[in-house]
Amino acid sequence: MTRIVIDPITRIEGHLAIEVEVDGGKVKDAWTSGTLFRGFEMVLKGRDPRDAYHITQRICGVCPTSHAHAAALCLEDAAGIHAPDMGRLVRNMVEGAQFLHSHILWFYHLAALDFVDVVAALKAEPREQSLKDVQARLKRFVDSGQLGPFANAYWGHPAYKLPAELNLLAVAHYLEALDKQAQASHISAIFGGRMPMTMTTPAGGSVHIPTVDDMANLRPRLLEIKEWVERVYIPDVLAVAPYYLDWAAVGKGPASFLAWGVFDDPSFDGKNRLLPSGIVTDGLTVKEIDEKAVTEDVTHGWYRDGAPVHPSSGVTEPEFTQWDVEKKYTWAKAPRYGDRPMEVGALARMVVAYAKGHPTAKRLIDDTLAALGVAGKPEVLFSVVGRIAARALETKLIADAMVEWSDAILENIKKGKKETFTHYTVPARAQGAGLWEAPRGALGHWNQIEKGRLANYQVITPTCWNISPRDGKGIRGTIEQALIGTPVADPKRPLEILRVAHSFDPCLACTVHVIDPVSNEVYKVKVA
Amino acid sequence: MMDLNLGRERAPLLHGSREPSVIPSLSRRDFLKICGTMAALLGLGASAVPRIAQALEEAAARRPSVIWLNFASDTGCTEALIKASYPNAAQLLLETLSMDYNETIMAAAGEQSEEILREALKRGQYYLIVEGAIPTKKGYGMIARREMIDIGKEFAAKANAVIAVGSCATWGGVPAGDPNPSGLKGVREALGVESINLDLCPVNEGILVATIVDLLLTNRIPALDSSGRPKIFYGQTIHDQCERRAHFEAGRFVERFGSREEELGYCLYKVGCKGPMAYANCSKFRYNDRVSWCIGAGAPCIGCSEPGWVDKFAGFYERLPGVRVPGIGGVEAGADKVGVAAGAATAVGIAAHAIGTGLSGRFKEKAPSKKAGKAPEKGGGSR
B107: which of A158, A214, A435, A464 is 20 to 30 A away, CA to CA? Predict the structure, then answer.
């Protein structure tokens, strides 16, 4: 038995530590720890409900627009309004561009280095001039002895399997993707003013009124990214996957999936979103969501103990004691859906869409399974490989939809249908829910308004689900379960642990939250 | 929607018959263009272009070490950094500087990343960039089982220069808003060092890059205001540099979002813009390849350039008190509370150069807090 602690886990957002117990070259047990507490919900209390749009964005600088839109939907739910069609389209574009940005960044800059040996790319013998150039730049870089962000990594580890040529191609695309992820964010900024931290889509719709100029600026950027996703990102995933097919059997986790759904259609019904809401458990059995089935447990978090309850009625107080994996070992809580830990993220969204018979998701997934030689076996998606594939396919699905939304915006401009904002009065007393998705998965905001001010505000972020610790019954969290069975060739260089952790794209800044112990009155939350 | 065409796309890549798509190395022409843009952003004339080119080339030859520590943050400033265009992220992080430690992008993890830190500390001679606030309560922020504040102090002591990026690192930021549950503080207060404070939430990527280029060019700490911000970027209000200023002067305002007035780009003061009290050059640098900025896109400024903005400017859609509004013939309600009278002949009741005069501090004391008008609480604050 060997205990391995990886602290910090890098190439994620925020502060995560993982401890595993390895026996016979495989992980036997695992603990995930969030190591930073910020307490946003306490900061929100007492404020103007409209300000939550700006404040909650600072929960996460990687997915600020998702918090922005969950907050906007939450207040709109409380006020009983919807954005006009143009407002809806602007939001979808700002959010969609963020998904493109986030998935490209995740694949090339955060996750790829677990599968691509940068130094081994020097051994390639490329025929193409452009790859020779990249290799020469890489050689100069390595020869300088200053490897910067590539220093002291697990290069040469036996778990790296790519041929040298593919390593080199991936390094070239790492550089190129630095430009693409920025381009995608620039699209968000054209409508949103800046990115990160979007400015224009608070409750009511959009304060920005799209113009033909915007579209002239935006369209070439969007089409360029869309083509690049089709010609580079997806082919790269399919080129790399055959060398790592054994990772289709690693990292399964609880195999229960939750999606609140994202990208509204004109009905504003979560079931009709581009990526619909739903729950998938027990294979591919799909059900509609029941938000009231959510509870949070604090047995193993640094909070004063209490029974697991719905987030709107929990009594919780931060209380750092000591780091002890047998007792308390994280600032994260343990959310459960009907007692189950759930996986959220691109895989969850794509699996829910697939199980619901979403035609585009189904075609994309079936084509991919066929290309990988596992046609008709969607269960192989419940793995590290599945998460990588799901993000790539979702990127394409969203890029295609964005072209359609941008067409719709242009059409609206032409027809003079420019209404972007629904006016409303902040209710004196109300409550609302904003259920949405960040790139990393299901995101829920809940507010309670008293005397026109926020009496309570609750957030359950995607990574809350994924890096959950054990609950009071001892059931492990999602990543903890996924880690079990992971091979570890060299305990001093636990590359394989990073592969599983990164496959969830953890975002820790989002994760840690708190319910104010003073005012948490029980209230019923409406389902959006 | 288009089919994937998996077979057609996959084969050429594997067999190398299609010229892969990669970014070519920077041409001399493009490099000089970047230097030209940078000169303009630093307020320097064309004669500075060769000096900037030389400084960047010298930097590229030795690649100065950067240690980027991420504390109580949301990584928004790292996200801002990688949106940079002049130079872009690859040119800056891989070819000009040696980004030796940044947890968000570095390949190494755990023991191997800790080793990089230990070596950097031994070696010294690095620029320290801090993103995120510093928790002062024990256990509220840890990396490798150490308190963030201890790591920060250790690394600040040996740095060539310390740059605090974004609101969190300069004064605590949004999570330090009332009641500041983790006892967050900024770099100057928590670590006791004279940081270069790059306020805004997140940092403007142009300001961050220009500050680094300026350091490479002059090897000196730039002139700072009383909040530690480089005067060159934070010396004037957003209002004074705003492209909608003429509408303000003419009394043309947006009264309702989504209105005809909004479409015409009128002034956003009446829908909550904090530009008259916010000191930064957002309108000049803009954001994201300079495609837009907050007011440019029709959003009222939330004042995120100012220490304490999250409480000071709470009620982001409420009208800023103390601004004399043209066309209305008077000062808006609340002016008396602020007690600032404009000396200038302009209609604005806020002095243009409050920085260094203590005016900002006075405003901070007297501005209505977010608690004003707040529903009564049973205990407040907690803990």
Answer: A464
Q: Which residues of A touch B105 (CB under 8 A)?
A: 11, 109-110, 149
**Record: fold of B235-370:** Cytochrome-c3 Hydrogenase; Chain A, domain 2 (4.10.480)
- CATH architecture assigned to A2-147+160-503: Orthogonal Bundle (1.10)
Contact criterion met (CB < 8 Å) for A6 and B380: no
Residue A464, SS3 per DSSP: helix
- Architecture label for domain B28-234: 3-Layer(aba) Sandwich (3.40)
Q: With bands split at pLDDT 50, 70 and 90, how would you rate the model's confidence at B95?
A: confident
Buried b (16+ CB within 10 A) or exposed e, B42-75: bebeeebbeebbebbeebeeebbbbbbbbbbbbb
Q: Would the CB atoms of A204 and B179 count as touching at under 8 Å?
A: no
Chain A CA closest to residue B268: A207
Q: Is pLDDT of A353 > 50?
A: yes
Using an 8 Å CB-CB cutoff, list chain A residues near B318: 48
- Minimal C-alpha gap between B167 and chain A (Å): 10
**pLDDT at position B14 over 60:** no
Query: What's residue A520's pLDDT?
Result: 33
Domain spans of chain A?
A: 2-147+160-503
Residue range A92-132, pLDDT digits in tens: 999 999 999 999 999 999 999 999 999 999 999 999 998 99
Chain B residues 70-129 with a CB less than 8 Å from chain A = 70-80, 82-85, 88-90, 93-94, 97-100, 102-113, 115-116
ipTM of the complex: 0.94
What per-residue confidence (pLDDT) applies to B327?
64
* Predicted pLDDT at B341: 32
- Which residues 145-174 on chain B approach chain A with CB closer than 8 angstroms? 145, 148, 173-174
Mean pLDDT of B326-332: 58
A461 to chain B, minimum CA–CA distance in Å?
13
CB contact under 8 A, B72 and A217: no
Interface residue B255 vs chain A (CB under 8 A): no
pLDDT by residue (tens digit) across A180-229?
999 999 999 999 999 999 999 999 999 999 999 999 999 999 999 999 99
